[in-house]
Design brief:
This protein is 73% helix and 3% strand. It is built from eleven helices and two strands; from the N terminus they run H-H-H-E-E-H-H-H-H-H-H-H-H. The chain has a two-stranded antiparallel ribbon with strand order 1-2. Strand 1 (70-73) and strand 2 (77-80) form a beta hairpin. The longest helix has 29 residues, at 2-30. The termini are far apart.
């Protein structure tokens, strides 16, 4: 009985470590530290660098491959994918023609609740990446740069849940936010003073997550999305 329990504990630990490694690689891809076409280190090199077994590394890479984040070629290695292929294609089709109003309604329902999963599942490195993303957004000087770091902030939160359905859904949301309707809305309503307001809100969310304060993070996220909806849509 003890041997069975020990095996289950080891499997759970291996799965947790694999999830953390996958999430860290996803973070590097989201922030552009790993770019399309970049070759990843070999399984052996990743295992040595990260202090994990090759089996754990292989599981993390398999998750990334199934999510469309990387491609793997026998004899050549693993590479960052050029165009993401959602693991659940229907997610992208559902948001293809969705209106900004519908999108904000959905985000208000879903995103405040994600903070619970982040507090439970995120590694210290993932929380640090969310905090660092806010700093990078502070340095943005063009609408394109701010939009990139704004999108990255919310994608990093989704990735830190370690829930693949959440991650895939937010990838679809990210695609929708780059549509013509969203771009026109942002061009009409966003300016540097509004960027600062949004950045300050991101900072409050990030600091609450860093402190493990679920309630404050949840409230801050909801307030942020409500203000974004008001600014973009007028209500």
């Amino acid at each position: 009985m003890e041997d069975v329990t020990l095996q289950e504990t080891q499997r759970a630990r291996s799965r947790r470590v694999a999830n953390e490694i996958r999430a860290d690689l996803e973070r590097q891809i989201a922030l552009g530290q790993l770019k399309s076409g970049d070759r990843l280190l070999t399984e052996r090199a990743l295992a040595m660098r990260l202090g994990a077994s090759r089996g754990v590394i292989r599981a993390a890479l398999l998750d990334l491959e199934q999510a469309g984040k990387i491609t793997r070629h026998v004899g050549r290695g693993s590479f960052v994918a050029g165009t993401r292929k959602p693991a659940h294609p229907i997610g992208a089709s559902l948001v293809a023609d969705i209106s900004p109003a519908e999108m904000m309604e959905f985000r208000l329902l879903i995103e405040p609740g994600l903070v619970d999963l982040v507090v439970i599942n995120a590694s210290n490195a993932e929380i640090d990446a969310i905090v660092a993303c806010v700093a990078r957004g502070d340095a943005a000087s063009t609408p394109q740069e701010f939009n990139f770091w704004d999108d990255s902030f919310h994608r990093l939160i989704a990735a830190a849940t370690h829930n693949r359905l959440v991650i895939d859904l937010y990838e679809a949301i990210s695609i929708a936010r780059k549509s013509g309707a969203w771009t026109r809305l942002k061009q009409q309503t966003m300016d540097k003073s509004r960027w600062k307001v949004f950045q300050d809100q991101h900072r409050v969310i990030a600091e609450a997550l860093k402190c493990g304060d679920r309630e404050s993070a949840r409230i801050a996220m909801r307030d942020h999305l409500l203000q974004a909806r008001t600014k973009l849509l007028g209500y």
